[in-house]
Write a sequence for this structure.
């Protein structure tokens, strides 16, 4: 697996593989256990395909009771577990370990309940993001977070990574749209957090679970918020002669108090690749393109379109086009949604990054990426959620050329370092996984990481759940120090503890 360092395989677990496989077959009978090398190849990687590793065994449970029995079994026998959804993670979050059970949740694929009175849907984690909208759209509702992979990515994976999408600027990320979860702890205990109601008092454990990347528990049921479709929506295509001008326009739109339903940006290479692939009507003579969607009552949209046009003109927009029908609006978005596969047609390989910056830093970071592109001799196409500063640079390379993958990875690391330098963060929605694990020190101090590890230890003391992800140095919980109790008194006894 290239130069990536993962936890050393446990020899005792490897020696007991046949026994573990047999026990898994008892817990999940039928075709729920995959153990042959050829069959496990389908699970050896996720969306970060540069890294591959066969698991110890693949298990596909169908019930919460089965998940609980699997985790309890593994916890009692010191066997590692790696949870996996649809495998679309772009940060290696579902990368298997050779001594770990790969717990695949794809058979949890049913919408369990639609509650229009409370505007909530209860779904199993294997249900795809788009399937939730399909389940309620005939009644005028939809699920707002819409990552580009929404046709394939699962809602369970969305919760694990706190996924966003083109409409997260106005309607929020997964964390803002999840109301409750049922989850299984490593001990096998089944717990519920939240539900179809207002926020619960006490610790925000639901917020803690959303974006926890499979390190704290395995989600088996999710309650999400659904919204009524807006009265109307129109999209604008605004072209600029430079990415810096487009970036400044984004900052000025938000600065004017306008919150579009979505605001995306593509640079020249991405524009041309998407147009060639989808024929969405994108202008080919510009170096940056903004897609700005405004939704709500018709008169409000008309007013805001005029405001955005004025701001764009002030920033030197060279083209502007407004959708005149629902079909045209959807065609504008079709190119953006297909941008990733479109870029795959112009380069043998590409490396998709994910960092988030303050909007005002867009021009600076775009200029910095251009300099890095020259430094590394690799092209880069930019497609990102401009409204909330979530960048998705696509670094173009050829894995058949020796050293180019490593060069692309270092290029990507420098982009993330730049994001942190201007006041941003390492990830917006793809997660840390293994991809950004060794860059956590760029953003967090050792004290910060120790505190995060203590949370992990509270849920998984033996560090069996998805080890080797997120934390740059694998340590035992005991190394963080035990709480010292002197004469029956704990430190700071007035602090509430759970």
């Amino acid at each position: 697996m290239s130069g990536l360092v993962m936890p050393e395989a446990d020899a005792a677990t490897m020696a007991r593989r046949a026994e573990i496989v047999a026990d898994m077959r008892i817990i999940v009978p039928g075709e729920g256990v995959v153990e042959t090398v050829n069959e496990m190849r389908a699970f050896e990687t996720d969306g970060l395909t540069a890294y591959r590793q066969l698991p110890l065994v693949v298990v596909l449970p169908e019930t919460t009771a089965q998940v609980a029995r699997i985790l309890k079994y593994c916890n009692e026998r010191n066997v590692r577990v790696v949870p996996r959804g649809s495998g679309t993670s772009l940060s290696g979050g579902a990368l298997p370990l050779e001594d770990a059970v790969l717990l695949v949740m794809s058979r949890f694929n049913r919408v369990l309940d639609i509650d229009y009175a409370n505007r909530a849907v209860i779904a199993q984690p294997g249900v795809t993001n788009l399937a939730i909208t399909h389940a309620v759209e005939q009644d005028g509702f939809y699920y707002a977070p819409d990552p580009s992979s929404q046709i394939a990515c699962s809602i369970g994976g969305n919760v694990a990574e706190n996924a966003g999408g083109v409409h997260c600027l106005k309607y929020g990320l997964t964390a803002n749209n999840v109301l409750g979860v049922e989850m299984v702890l490593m001990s096998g205990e089944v717990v519920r957090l939240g539900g179809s109601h207002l926020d619960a008092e006490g610790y925000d454990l639901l917020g803690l679970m959303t974006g926890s990347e499979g390190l704290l528990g395995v989600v088996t049921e999710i309650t999400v918020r659904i919204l009524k479709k807006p009265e109307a929506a129109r999209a604008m295509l605004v072209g600029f002669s430079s990415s810096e001008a487009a970036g400044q326009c984004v900052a000025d739109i938000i600065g004017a108090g306008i919150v579009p339903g979505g605001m995306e940006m593509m640079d020249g290479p991405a524009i041309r690749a998407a147009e060639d692939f989808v024929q969405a009507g994108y202008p080919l003579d510009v170096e940056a393109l903004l897609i700005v969607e405004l939704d709500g009552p018709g008169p409000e949209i008309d007013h805001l379109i005029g405001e955005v046009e004025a701001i764009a003109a002030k920033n030197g927009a060279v083209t502007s086009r407004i959708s005149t029908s629902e079909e045209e609006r959807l065609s504008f978005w079709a190119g953006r949604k297909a941008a990733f596969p479109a870029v795959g047609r112009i380069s043998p390989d590409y490396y998709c990054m994910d960092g988030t910056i303050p909007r005002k830093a867009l021009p600076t970071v775009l200029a910095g990426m251009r300099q890095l592109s020259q430094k590394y001799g690799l092209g880069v196409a930019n497609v990102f959620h401009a409204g909330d500063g979530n960048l998705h640079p696509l670094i173009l390379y050829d894995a058949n050329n020796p050293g180019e993958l490593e060069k692309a990875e270092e290029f990507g690391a420098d982009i993330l370092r730049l994001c942190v330098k201007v006041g941003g963060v390492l990830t917006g929605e793809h997660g840390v996984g293994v991809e950004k694990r060794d860059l956590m020190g760029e953003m967090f101090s050792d004290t910060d990481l120790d505190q995060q590890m203590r949370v992990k230890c509270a849920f998984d003391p033996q560090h069996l759940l998805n080890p080797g992800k997120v934390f740059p140095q694998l340590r035992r919980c005991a190394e963080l120090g035990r709480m010292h109790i002197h004469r029956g008194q704990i430190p700071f006894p007035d602090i509430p503890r759970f």
About this structure: The first strand starts at residue 33 and ends at 34. The domain at 111-228 is CATH 3.30.465.10 (Uridine Diphospho-n-acetylenolpyruvylglucosamine Reductase; domain 3). The CA atoms of residues 47 and 90 lie 5 Å apart. The chain has 17 helices and 20 strands.
